[in-house]
Request: fold
Amino acid sequence: MPASTPRATAPTLAELYTPKLVTTLREGYGPARLRADAIAGLTVAIVALPLSMAIAIASGATPGAGLTTAIVGGFLVSALGGSRYQIGGPAGAFIVLVAACIARHGMEGLILATLMSGVFLMLIGGLRLGTYIKYIPHPVTVGFTAGIGVIILSSQLKDLFGLTLAGPEPGPLAEKLPALAAALPSLNGITLALSAGTIGLILLLRRYRPHWPGLLIAVVLAAGLTAGLDLPVDTIASRFGGIPAGLPAPALPDVSVAKMLAVLPEAIGFALLGAIESLLSAVVADGMTGRRHRANCELVAQGVANIGSALFGGICVTGTIARTATNVRAGATSPVSGMLHAVFLLLFLLVAAPLAGYIPLAALAGVLAVVAWNMLERHAIGTILRHSRADTLVFGATFFLTLFRDLTEAILVGVALGGAIFIDRMARLVQVEQHKPFVGEDAADRLSGSDSGLQYLRGEAPFAAGVASDPDLVVYRLSGAFFFGSAATVGAVLDRIADRHRALVLDFSGVALMDSTAALTMIGALRKASGRNVTLHLAGASPAIRGALATHGLKDGEVQVHPDLDTAVRAARLALDQARTS
Reply:
Protein backbone atom coordinates (compact mmCIF):
# COMPACT_ATOMS: atom_id res chain seq x y z
CA MET A 1 0.00 0.00 0.00
CA PRO A 2 1.30 3.50 -0.70
CA ALA A 3 2.56 5.47 2.24
CA SER A 4 -0.02 7.85 3.61
CA THR A 5 0.56 11.56 3.23
CA PRO A 6 1.57 13.12 6.58
CA ARG A 7 -1.09 15.38 7.98
CA ALA A 8 -0.21 18.96 8.80
CA THR A 9 -0.31 19.59 12.52
CA ALA A 10 -1.58 22.80 14.05
CA PRO A 11 1.15 25.01 15.51
CA THR A 12 1.56 24.94 19.26
CA LEU A 13 1.19 27.99 21.49
CA ALA A 14 4.95 28.15 21.83
CA GLU A 15 5.34 28.21 18.05
CA LEU A 16 2.68 30.91 17.69
CA TYR A 17 4.05 33.27 20.31
CA THR A 18 7.80 32.67 20.41
CA PRO A 19 9.48 36.00 19.47
CA LYS A 20 11.59 35.95 16.35
CA LEU A 21 14.51 37.12 18.48
CA VAL A 22 14.48 33.77 20.28
CA THR A 23 14.25 31.94 16.95
CA THR A 24 17.23 33.90 15.64
CA LEU A 25 19.38 33.20 18.68
CA ARG A 26 18.58 29.49 18.43
CA GLU A 27 19.85 29.49 14.86
CA GLY A 28 23.22 30.78 16.03
CA TYR A 29 24.23 34.41 16.30
CA GLY A 30 27.83 35.47 15.81
CA PRO A 31 29.98 38.59 15.29
CA ALA A 32 29.28 38.77 11.55
CA ARG A 33 25.54 38.97 12.06
CA LEU A 34 25.97 41.46 14.91
CA ARG A 35 28.07 43.69 12.66
CA ALA A 36 25.43 43.58 9.90
CA ASP A 37 22.64 44.32 12.37
CA ALA A 38 24.59 47.21 13.91
CA ILE A 39 25.06 48.84 10.50
CA ALA A 40 21.37 48.36 9.67
CA GLY A 41 20.30 49.65 13.09
CA LEU A 42 22.41 52.80 12.70
CA THR A 43 20.99 53.38 9.21
CA VAL A 44 17.42 53.08 10.47
CA ALA A 45 18.16 55.33 13.47
CA ILE A 46 19.41 58.05 11.13
CA VAL A 47 16.11 57.84 9.22
CA ALA A 48 13.99 57.57 12.37
CA LEU A 49 15.56 60.53 14.17
CA PRO A 50 13.99 63.39 12.16
CA LEU A 51 10.84 61.38 11.37
CA SER A 52 10.04 60.62 15.00
CA MET A 53 10.29 64.27 15.98
CA ALA A 54 8.34 65.47 12.93
CA ILE A 55 5.50 62.98 13.45
CA ALA A 56 5.21 63.86 17.13
CA ILE A 57 5.09 67.59 16.40
CA ALA A 58 2.48 67.10 13.67
CA SER A 59 0.43 65.04 16.14
CA GLY A 60 0.37 67.85 18.68
CA ALA A 61 2.93 66.23 21.01
CA THR A 62 6.51 67.24 21.77
CA PRO A 63 9.53 66.08 19.73
CA GLY A 64 10.83 64.39 22.88
CA ALA A 65 7.67 62.28 23.04
CA GLY A 66 8.32 61.12 19.49
CA LEU A 67 11.87 60.05 20.29
CA THR A 68 10.70 58.32 23.47
CA THR A 69 8.16 56.39 21.42
CA ALA A 70 10.81 55.28 18.93
CA ILE A 71 13.23 54.24 21.69
CA VAL A 72 10.92 52.40 24.11
CA GLY A 73 8.35 51.17 21.59
CA GLY A 74 10.93 50.34 18.93
CA PHE A 75 13.02 48.26 21.35
CA LEU A 76 10.01 46.26 22.62
CA VAL A 77 8.58 45.63 19.14
CA SER A 78 11.89 44.15 17.97
CA ALA A 79 12.62 42.22 21.17
CA LEU A 80 9.18 40.60 21.47
CA GLY A 81 7.72 40.71 17.96
CA GLY A 82 6.92 38.03 15.42
CA SER A 83 8.90 39.59 12.57
CA ARG A 84 12.65 39.48 12.06
CA TYR A 85 12.82 42.93 10.47
CA GLN A 86 9.96 45.01 11.90
CA ILE A 87 10.88 48.51 13.10
CA GLY A 88 8.44 50.07 15.54
CA GLY A 89 7.90 53.70 16.37
CA PRO A 90 5.57 56.64 15.75
CA ALA A 91 3.91 56.50 12.32
CA GLY A 92 2.43 59.12 10.04
CA ALA A 93 -0.81 57.14 9.82
CA PHE A 94 -1.50 57.98 13.48
CA ILE A 95 -1.10 61.74 13.16
CA VAL A 96 -4.79 62.37 12.54
CA LEU A 97 -6.01 60.17 15.41
CA VAL A 98 -3.38 61.34 17.90
CA ALA A 99 -3.96 65.02 17.13
CA ALA A 100 -7.71 64.59 17.57
CA CYS A 101 -7.22 62.73 20.85
CA ILE A 102 -4.93 65.44 22.24
CA ALA A 103 -7.41 68.12 21.17
CA ARG A 104 -10.25 66.35 23.00
CA HIS A 105 -8.54 64.90 26.07
CA GLY A 106 -5.11 66.47 26.38
CA MET A 107 -1.77 64.69 26.60
CA GLU A 108 -2.87 62.82 29.71
CA GLY A 109 -5.86 61.42 27.84
CA LEU A 110 -3.63 60.41 24.92
CA ILE A 111 -1.31 58.47 27.21
CA LEU A 112 -4.27 56.65 28.78
CA ALA A 113 -5.73 55.84 25.35
CA THR A 114 -2.33 54.56 24.18
CA LEU A 115 -2.06 52.32 27.23
CA MET A 116 -5.57 50.96 26.69
CA SER A 117 -4.87 50.33 23.01
CA GLY A 118 -1.86 48.28 24.08
CA VAL A 119 -4.13 46.08 26.19
CA PHE A 120 -6.55 45.71 23.26
CA LEU A 121 -3.72 44.73 20.90
CA MET A 122 -2.54 42.09 23.34
CA LEU A 123 -6.08 40.71 23.51
CA ILE A 124 -6.39 40.67 19.72
CA GLY A 125 -3.13 38.76 19.45
CA GLY A 126 -3.96 36.48 22.38
CA LEU A 127 -7.31 35.55 20.81
CA ARG A 128 -5.52 34.80 17.51
CA LEU A 129 -7.48 37.41 15.59
CA GLY A 130 -4.41 38.72 13.81
CA THR A 131 -4.93 36.41 10.85
CA TYR A 132 -8.21 38.19 10.03
CA ILE A 133 -6.48 41.52 9.41
CA LYS A 134 -5.40 40.18 6.01
CA TYR A 135 -9.04 40.19 4.89
CA ILE A 136 -9.13 43.99 4.69
CA PRO A 137 -9.53 44.79 0.96
CA HIS A 138 -6.62 46.43 -0.84
CA PRO A 139 -8.71 49.46 -1.98
CA VAL A 140 -9.49 50.16 1.70
CA THR A 141 -5.82 50.23 2.74
CA VAL A 142 -4.89 52.39 -0.26
CA GLY A 143 -7.86 54.68 0.40
CA PHE A 144 -7.19 55.41 4.05
CA THR A 145 -3.43 55.67 3.48
CA ALA A 146 -3.98 58.24 0.72
CA GLY A 147 -6.48 60.11 2.86
CA ILE A 148 -4.03 60.25 5.75
CA GLY A 149 -1.36 61.50 3.36
CA VAL A 150 -3.57 64.41 2.28
CA ILE A 151 -4.40 65.27 5.90
CA ILE A 152 -0.73 65.16 6.93
CA LEU A 153 0.22 67.45 4.05
CA SER A 154 -2.53 69.90 4.95
CA SER A 155 -1.39 69.87 8.59
CA GLN A 156 2.10 70.99 7.55
CA LEU A 157 1.06 73.91 5.34
CA LYS A 158 1.26 76.35 8.25
CA ASP A 159 4.89 75.49 9.03
CA LEU A 160 5.82 75.05 5.37
CA PHE A 161 4.79 78.62 4.55
CA GLY A 162 5.42 80.19 7.98
CA LEU A 163 1.82 81.36 8.28
CA THR A 164 0.42 83.18 11.29
CA LEU A 165 -3.19 82.32 12.04
CA ALA A 166 -5.62 84.60 13.84
CA GLY A 167 -6.58 81.76 16.21
CA PRO A 168 -5.96 78.08 16.81
CA GLU A 169 -5.54 76.00 13.64
CA PRO A 170 -8.79 74.13 12.90
CA GLY A 171 -8.62 70.35 12.83
CA PRO A 172 -11.19 69.37 10.15
CA LEU A 173 -9.90 69.73 6.60
CA ALA A 174 -12.95 71.69 5.41
CA GLU A 175 -12.31 74.32 8.10
CA LYS A 176 -8.50 74.23 7.97
CA LEU A 177 -8.05 75.11 4.30
CA PRO A 178 -10.12 78.37 4.40
CA ALA A 179 -8.28 79.46 7.57
CA LEU A 180 -4.89 78.82 5.94
CA ALA A 181 -5.97 80.64 2.78
CA ALA A 182 -6.99 83.66 4.88
CA ALA A 183 -3.53 83.66 6.50
CA LEU A 184 -1.58 83.71 3.21
CA PRO A 185 -0.66 87.43 3.55
CA SER A 186 1.46 86.46 6.59
CA LEU A 187 3.66 84.13 4.51
CA ASN A 188 7.30 84.09 5.67
CA GLY A 189 9.67 83.96 2.70
CA ILE A 190 12.61 82.60 4.71
CA THR A 191 10.51 79.79 6.14
CA LEU A 192 9.23 78.92 2.68
CA ALA A 193 12.77 78.88 1.31
CA LEU A 194 13.93 76.56 4.10
CA SER A 195 11.07 74.11 3.64
CA ALA A 196 11.36 74.15 -0.16
CA GLY A 197 15.12 73.64 0.10
CA THR A 198 14.63 70.74 2.49
CA ILE A 199 12.14 69.04 0.16
CA GLY A 200 14.30 69.68 -2.90
CA LEU A 201 17.46 68.31 -1.25
CA ILE A 202 15.65 65.16 -0.04
CA LEU A 203 14.33 64.48 -3.53
CA LEU A 204 17.69 65.15 -5.19
CA LEU A 205 19.56 62.87 -2.79
CA ARG A 206 16.91 60.19 -3.19
CA ARG A 207 17.42 60.25 -6.96
CA TYR A 208 21.18 60.65 -7.28
CA ARG A 209 22.46 59.31 -3.94
CA PRO A 210 19.72 56.90 -2.78
CA HIS A 211 21.99 55.24 -0.21
CA TRP A 212 22.71 58.49 1.60
CA PRO A 213 20.54 59.46 4.61
CA GLY A 214 18.75 62.24 2.75
CA LEU A 215 16.28 63.09 5.53
CA LEU A 216 18.98 63.60 8.15
CA ILE A 217 21.31 65.47 5.78
CA ALA A 218 18.56 67.90 4.81
CA VAL A 219 17.52 68.54 8.41
CA VAL A 220 21.12 68.98 9.63
CA LEU A 221 21.91 71.47 6.84
CA ALA A 222 18.72 73.40 7.59
CA ALA A 223 19.61 73.50 11.29
CA GLY A 224 23.14 74.64 10.45
CA LEU A 225 21.87 77.48 8.26
CA THR A 226 19.35 78.52 10.90
CA ALA A 227 21.97 78.63 13.67
CA GLY A 228 24.78 80.11 11.56
CA LEU A 229 22.72 82.88 9.97
CA ASP A 230 20.42 83.39 12.97
CA LEU A 231 17.38 83.06 10.73
CA PRO A 232 14.06 84.37 12.12
CA VAL A 233 12.14 81.09 11.92
CA ASP A 234 10.49 78.79 14.45
CA THR A 235 12.74 76.05 15.81
CA ILE A 236 12.35 73.17 18.23
CA ALA A 237 13.95 75.32 20.94
CA SER A 238 11.75 78.35 20.32
CA ARG A 239 8.50 76.37 20.34
CA PHE A 240 9.24 73.45 22.70
CA GLY A 241 12.30 74.56 24.66
CA GLY A 242 14.41 71.74 23.18
CA ILE A 243 14.24 68.04 23.97
CA PRO A 244 15.21 66.29 27.21
CA ALA A 245 18.65 64.68 27.40
CA GLY A 246 17.33 61.23 28.28
CA LEU A 247 14.16 59.26 28.92
CA PRO A 248 11.63 60.44 31.48
CA ALA A 249 10.87 58.28 34.50
CA PRO A 250 8.03 55.80 33.93
CA ALA A 251 4.70 56.77 35.48
CA LEU A 252 1.09 55.67 35.28
CA PRO A 253 -1.46 58.18 33.96
CA ASP A 254 -4.46 59.10 36.06
CA VAL A 255 -6.87 56.21 35.63
CA SER A 256 -10.57 56.32 36.39
CA VAL A 257 -13.62 54.65 34.92
CA ALA A 258 -14.91 57.98 33.61
CA LYS A 259 -11.64 58.78 31.83
CA MET A 260 -11.36 55.29 30.40
CA LEU A 261 -14.85 55.52 28.94
CA ALA A 262 -14.08 58.98 27.57
CA VAL A 263 -11.00 57.81 25.63
CA LEU A 264 -12.39 54.38 24.71
CA PRO A 265 -13.21 55.32 21.08
CA GLU A 266 -9.69 56.66 20.57
CA ALA A 267 -8.16 53.56 22.18
CA ILE A 268 -10.14 51.29 19.85
CA GLY A 269 -9.08 53.39 16.86
CA PHE A 270 -5.42 53.21 17.91
CA ALA A 271 -5.64 49.43 18.31
CA LEU A 272 -7.42 48.89 14.99
CA LEU A 273 -5.07 51.09 12.99
CA GLY A 274 -2.03 49.76 14.85
CA ALA A 275 -2.96 46.17 14.03
CA ILE A 276 -3.50 46.98 10.36
CA GLU A 277 -0.37 49.11 9.96
CA SER A 278 1.98 46.75 11.80
CA LEU A 279 0.83 43.61 9.98
CA LEU A 280 0.98 45.37 6.61
CA SER A 281 4.53 46.37 7.43
CA ALA A 282 5.38 42.78 8.41
CA VAL A 283 3.89 41.52 5.13
CA VAL A 284 6.06 44.00 3.20
CA ALA A 285 9.13 42.70 5.01
CA ASP A 286 8.10 39.11 4.22
CA GLY A 287 7.79 39.98 0.55
CA MET A 288 11.27 41.52 0.53
CA THR A 289 12.99 38.66 2.36
CA GLY A 290 10.97 35.49 1.74
CA ARG A 291 10.43 35.02 5.47
CA ARG A 292 7.12 34.62 7.31
CA HIS A 293 6.09 36.61 10.35
CA ARG A 294 3.95 35.42 13.27
CA ALA A 295 0.94 37.71 13.12
CA ASN A 296 -0.49 37.14 16.59
CA CYS A 297 2.92 37.26 18.26
CA GLU A 298 3.53 40.56 16.47
CA LEU A 299 0.26 42.01 17.79
CA VAL A 300 1.07 40.98 21.35
CA ALA A 301 4.45 42.71 21.01
CA GLN A 302 2.78 45.82 19.58
CA GLY A 303 0.49 45.83 22.62
CA VAL A 304 3.39 45.59 25.07
CA ALA A 305 5.22 48.32 23.14
CA ASN A 306 2.25 50.70 23.37
CA ILE A 307 1.95 50.08 27.10
CA GLY A 308 5.68 50.70 27.51
CA SER A 309 5.55 53.87 25.43
CA ALA A 310 2.61 55.20 27.44
CA LEU A 311 4.38 54.56 30.74
CA PHE A 312 7.32 56.70 29.57
CA GLY A 313 5.10 59.47 28.22
CA GLY A 314 5.28 58.47 24.55
CA ILE A 315 2.60 58.24 21.88
CA CYS A 316 1.23 55.36 19.80
CA VAL A 317 3.62 52.71 18.48
CA THR A 318 3.20 50.61 15.36
CA GLY A 319 5.28 48.86 12.75
CA THR A 320 6.49 51.40 10.21
CA ILE A 321 6.69 50.34 6.58
CA ALA A 322 9.34 52.82 5.41
CA ARG A 323 11.73 52.19 8.31
CA THR A 324 11.18 48.43 8.12
CA ALA A 325 11.99 48.46 4.40
CA THR A 326 15.08 50.55 5.13
CA ASN A 327 16.12 47.99 7.72
CA VAL A 328 15.85 45.16 5.19
CA ARG A 329 17.74 47.06 2.48
CA ALA A 330 20.49 47.95 4.95
CA GLY A 331 21.26 44.25 5.45
CA ALA A 332 19.58 43.43 8.76
CA THR A 333 19.60 39.74 9.71
CA SER A 334 17.56 39.66 12.92
CA PRO A 335 15.47 41.72 15.38
CA VAL A 336 18.75 42.82 16.98
CA SER A 337 18.97 45.56 14.33
CA GLY A 338 15.70 47.06 15.55
CA MET A 339 16.84 46.90 19.16
CA LEU A 340 20.12 48.61 18.23
CA HIS A 341 18.22 51.31 16.32
CA ALA A 342 16.51 52.17 19.62
CA VAL A 343 19.86 52.17 21.45
CA PHE A 344 21.38 54.57 18.88
CA LEU A 345 18.43 56.93 19.28
CA LEU A 346 18.90 56.84 23.05
CA LEU A 347 22.59 57.70 22.62
CA PHE A 348 21.56 60.71 20.53
CA LEU A 349 19.30 61.87 23.35
CA LEU A 350 22.07 61.52 25.88
CA VAL A 351 24.80 63.17 23.81
CA ALA A 352 23.33 65.56 21.25
CA ALA A 353 19.93 66.62 22.61
CA PRO A 354 20.89 70.33 22.91
CA LEU A 355 21.76 70.47 19.21
CA ALA A 356 18.23 69.43 18.27
CA GLY A 357 16.95 72.79 19.47
CA TYR A 358 18.38 74.45 16.33
CA ILE A 359 16.27 72.32 13.98
CA PRO A 360 13.75 74.59 12.19
CA LEU A 361 10.17 73.41 12.15
CA ALA A 362 10.07 74.24 8.43
CA ALA A 363 12.64 71.50 7.81
CA LEU A 364 10.61 68.93 9.76
CA ALA A 365 7.51 70.06 7.87
CA GLY A 366 9.41 69.44 4.64
CA VAL A 367 10.28 65.94 5.82
CA LEU A 368 6.61 65.21 6.53
CA ALA A 369 5.56 66.70 3.19
CA VAL A 370 7.77 64.12 1.47
CA VAL A 371 6.34 61.37 3.70
CA ALA A 372 2.78 62.50 2.89
CA TRP A 373 3.52 62.52 -0.85
CA ASN A 374 4.87 58.97 -0.62
CA MET A 375 1.70 57.87 1.16
CA LEU A 376 -0.26 58.79 -1.97
CA GLU A 377 0.43 55.49 -3.70
CA ARG A 378 -0.16 56.86 -7.17
CA HIS A 379 0.53 53.61 -9.02
CA ALA A 380 -1.81 51.64 -6.73
CA ILE A 381 -4.53 54.29 -7.02
CA GLY A 382 -4.28 54.27 -10.82
CA THR A 383 -4.51 50.47 -10.90
CA ILE A 384 -7.63 50.49 -8.72
CA LEU A 385 -9.31 53.18 -10.82
CA ARG A 386 -8.62 51.22 -14.01
CA HIS A 387 -9.55 47.82 -12.58
CA SER A 388 -13.24 48.11 -11.81
CA ARG A 389 -15.97 50.49 -10.72
CA ALA A 390 -16.58 48.41 -7.60
CA ASP A 391 -13.00 48.79 -6.36
CA THR A 392 -13.11 52.48 -7.28
CA LEU A 393 -16.26 52.85 -5.15
CA VAL A 394 -14.58 51.18 -2.15
CA PHE A 395 -11.44 53.30 -2.56
CA GLY A 396 -13.41 56.52 -2.97
CA ALA A 397 -15.65 55.89 0.01
CA THR A 398 -12.67 55.11 2.25
CA PHE A 399 -10.64 58.06 0.96
CA PHE A 400 -13.33 60.72 1.37
CA LEU A 401 -14.57 59.40 4.72
CA THR A 402 -10.97 59.58 5.96
CA LEU A 403 -10.73 63.18 4.80
CA PHE A 404 -14.06 64.48 6.02
CA ARG A 405 -15.32 62.11 8.70
CA ASP A 406 -13.23 59.72 10.78
CA LEU A 407 -10.51 57.17 10.07
CA THR A 408 -12.15 54.35 12.04
CA GLU A 409 -15.48 54.99 10.34
CA ALA A 410 -13.73 55.03 6.96
CA ILE A 411 -12.14 51.63 7.55
CA LEU A 412 -15.35 50.06 8.84
CA VAL A 413 -17.44 51.41 5.95
CA GLY A 414 -14.78 50.43 3.42
CA VAL A 415 -14.55 46.88 4.73
CA ALA A 416 -18.36 46.53 4.85
CA LEU A 417 -18.72 47.89 1.32
CA GLY A 418 -15.92 45.67 0.04
CA GLY A 419 -17.53 42.65 1.71
CA ALA A 420 -20.92 43.38 0.15
CA ILE A 421 -19.36 43.71 -3.29
CA PHE A 422 -17.45 40.47 -2.80
CA ILE A 423 -20.65 38.64 -1.80
CA ASP A 424 -22.37 39.95 -4.92
CA ARG A 425 -19.47 38.83 -7.10
CA MET A 426 -19.40 35.36 -5.55
CA ALA A 427 -23.17 35.00 -5.92
CA ARG A 428 -22.88 35.78 -9.63
CA LEU A 429 -20.28 33.03 -10.04
CA VAL A 430 -22.67 30.31 -8.87
CA GLN A 431 -24.16 28.45 -11.83
CA VAL A 432 -27.03 25.99 -12.19
CA GLU A 433 -26.93 24.55 -15.69
CA GLN A 434 -28.40 21.54 -17.42
CA HIS A 435 -26.04 18.86 -18.68
CA LYS A 436 -26.51 18.48 -22.43
CA PRO A 437 -24.43 16.01 -24.47
CA PHE A 438 -22.96 17.42 -27.65
CA VAL A 439 -24.25 14.55 -29.88
CA GLY A 440 -26.74 11.88 -28.82
CA GLU A 441 -26.65 8.37 -30.32
CA ASP A 442 -29.77 7.19 -32.14
CA ALA A 443 -31.31 3.77 -31.61
CA ALA A 444 -29.65 2.16 -34.63
CA ASP A 445 -26.19 3.15 -33.41
CA ARG A 446 -26.96 1.89 -29.92
CA LEU A 447 -27.89 -1.57 -31.28
CA SER A 448 -25.08 -1.80 -33.82
CA GLY A 449 -22.68 -3.65 -31.55
CA SER A 450 -20.38 -0.65 -30.94
CA ASP A 451 -18.70 -0.22 -27.57
CA SER A 452 -21.26 2.36 -26.50
CA GLY A 453 -24.11 0.11 -27.67
CA LEU A 454 -22.79 -2.81 -25.62
CA GLN A 455 -22.45 -0.54 -22.60
CA TYR A 456 -26.05 0.58 -23.08
CA LEU A 457 -27.40 -2.98 -23.31
CA ARG A 458 -25.46 -3.99 -20.18
CA GLY A 459 -26.84 -1.00 -18.24
CA GLU A 460 -23.41 0.69 -18.25
CA ALA A 461 -24.18 3.49 -20.65
CA PRO A 462 -21.93 6.54 -20.21
CA PHE A 463 -23.46 9.74 -18.91
CA ALA A 464 -24.03 11.37 -22.32
CA ALA A 465 -25.77 8.35 -23.83
CA GLY A 466 -27.91 7.82 -20.73
CA VAL A 467 -29.23 11.33 -20.65
CA ALA A 468 -29.74 11.64 -24.39
CA SER A 469 -31.75 8.41 -24.60
CA ASP A 470 -34.26 9.16 -21.84
CA PRO A 471 -36.59 12.20 -22.00
CA ASP A 472 -37.80 11.57 -18.43
CA LEU A 473 -34.31 12.10 -17.00
CA VAL A 474 -32.75 15.51 -16.43
CA VAL A 475 -29.30 16.28 -15.01
CA TYR A 476 -28.28 19.64 -13.58
CA ARG A 477 -24.82 20.67 -12.49
CA LEU A 478 -24.16 23.18 -9.70
CA SER A 479 -20.81 24.93 -9.48
CA GLY A 480 -19.26 27.58 -7.26
CA ALA A 481 -19.82 28.56 -3.65
CA PHE A 482 -23.41 27.77 -2.67
CA PHE A 483 -24.09 30.21 0.16
CA PHE A 484 -26.65 32.72 1.40
CA GLY A 485 -25.79 35.19 -1.35
CA SER A 486 -26.74 32.75 -4.10
CA ALA A 487 -29.31 30.57 -2.30
CA ALA A 488 -32.40 32.45 -3.51
CA THR A 489 -31.30 32.33 -7.16
CA VAL A 490 -30.39 28.64 -7.04
CA GLY A 491 -33.60 27.77 -5.18
CA ALA A 492 -35.76 29.50 -7.79
CA VAL A 493 -34.08 27.49 -10.56
CA LEU A 494 -34.38 24.18 -8.70
CA ASP A 495 -38.10 24.76 -8.08
CA ARG A 496 -38.71 24.73 -11.84
CA ILE A 497 -36.42 22.01 -13.18
CA ALA A 498 -38.51 18.93 -12.32
CA ASP A 499 -41.77 20.06 -13.91
CA ARG A 500 -41.49 17.90 -17.05
CA HIS A 501 -39.29 15.02 -15.85
CA ARG A 502 -39.62 11.99 -13.57
CA ALA A 503 -36.00 11.67 -12.44
CA LEU A 504 -33.67 14.45 -11.34
CA VAL A 505 -29.88 14.12 -10.93
CA LEU A 506 -27.99 16.98 -9.25
CA ASP A 507 -24.25 17.01 -9.83
CA PHE A 508 -22.58 18.60 -6.80
CA SER A 509 -18.97 17.82 -7.78
CA GLY A 510 -18.34 21.49 -8.62
CA VAL A 511 -19.74 22.93 -5.38
CA ALA A 512 -16.94 24.19 -3.15
CA LEU A 513 -18.97 24.91 0.00
CA MET A 514 -22.48 25.11 1.37
CA ASP A 515 -23.68 27.18 4.31
CA SER A 516 -26.84 26.84 6.41
CA THR A 517 -29.00 29.03 4.18
CA ALA A 518 -27.98 27.08 1.09
CA ALA A 519 -28.57 23.72 2.82
CA LEU A 520 -32.10 24.70 3.85
CA THR A 521 -32.81 26.04 0.37
CA MET A 522 -31.60 22.80 -1.20
CA ILE A 523 -33.67 20.62 1.15
CA GLY A 524 -36.78 22.66 0.42
CA ALA A 525 -36.28 22.32 -3.35
CA LEU A 526 -35.64 18.58 -3.07
CA ARG A 527 -38.81 18.05 -1.03
CA LYS A 528 -40.90 20.04 -3.53
CA ALA A 529 -39.58 17.83 -6.32
CA SER A 530 -40.26 14.71 -4.27
CA GLY A 531 -43.84 15.91 -3.76
CA ARG A 532 -44.28 15.72 -7.54
CA ASN A 533 -43.16 12.05 -7.47
CA VAL A 534 -39.77 12.89 -8.96
CA THR A 535 -36.93 10.49 -8.09
CA LEU A 536 -34.00 12.43 -6.66
CA HIS A 537 -30.31 11.57 -7.06
CA LEU A 538 -27.33 13.49 -5.66
CA ALA A 539 -23.94 12.96 -7.33
CA GLY A 540 -20.41 13.93 -6.35
CA ALA A 541 -21.28 15.72 -3.08
CA SER A 542 -18.36 16.01 -0.66
CA PRO A 543 -18.68 14.62 2.88
CA ALA A 544 -18.94 18.19 4.20
CA ILE A 545 -21.91 18.97 1.94
CA ARG A 546 -23.65 15.69 2.75
CA GLY A 547 -23.09 16.40 6.43
CA ALA A 548 -24.54 19.91 6.08
CA LEU A 549 -27.69 18.54 4.44
CA ALA A 550 -28.09 15.88 7.12
CA THR A 551 -27.51 18.38 9.92
CA HIS A 552 -30.25 20.63 8.57
CA GLY A 553 -32.87 17.87 8.39
CA LEU A 554 -32.45 15.88 5.18
CA LYS A 555 -33.55 12.35 6.09
CA ASP A 556 -32.23 9.04 4.81
CA GLY A 557 -34.14 7.95 1.73
CA GLU A 558 -35.30 11.43 0.70
CA VAL A 559 -32.53 11.52 -1.86
CA GLN A 560 -30.21 8.85 -3.26
CA VAL A 561 -26.53 9.70 -2.90
CA HIS A 562 -23.96 8.51 -5.46
CA PRO A 563 -20.17 8.97 -5.60
CA ASP A 564 -20.07 10.29 -9.20
CA LEU A 565 -22.27 11.45 -12.03
CA ASP A 566 -22.11 8.31 -14.20
CA THR A 567 -23.19 6.13 -11.28
CA ALA A 568 -26.07 8.49 -10.51
CA VAL A 569 -27.30 8.54 -14.12
CA ARG A 570 -27.20 4.74 -14.40
CA ALA A 571 -29.14 4.39 -11.13
CA ALA A 572 -31.72 6.95 -12.26
CA ARG A 573 -32.23 5.19 -15.61
CA LEU A 574 -32.56 1.82 -13.93
CA ALA A 575 -35.22 3.19 -11.58
CA LEU A 576 -37.11 4.70 -14.52
CA ASP A 577 -37.01 1.42 -16.47
CA GLN A 578 -38.29 -0.49 -13.46
CA ALA A 579 -41.10 2.03 -12.97
CA ARG A 580 -42.17 1.73 -16.60
CA THR A 581 -42.31 -2.11 -16.57
CA SER A 582 -44.10 -2.39 -13.24
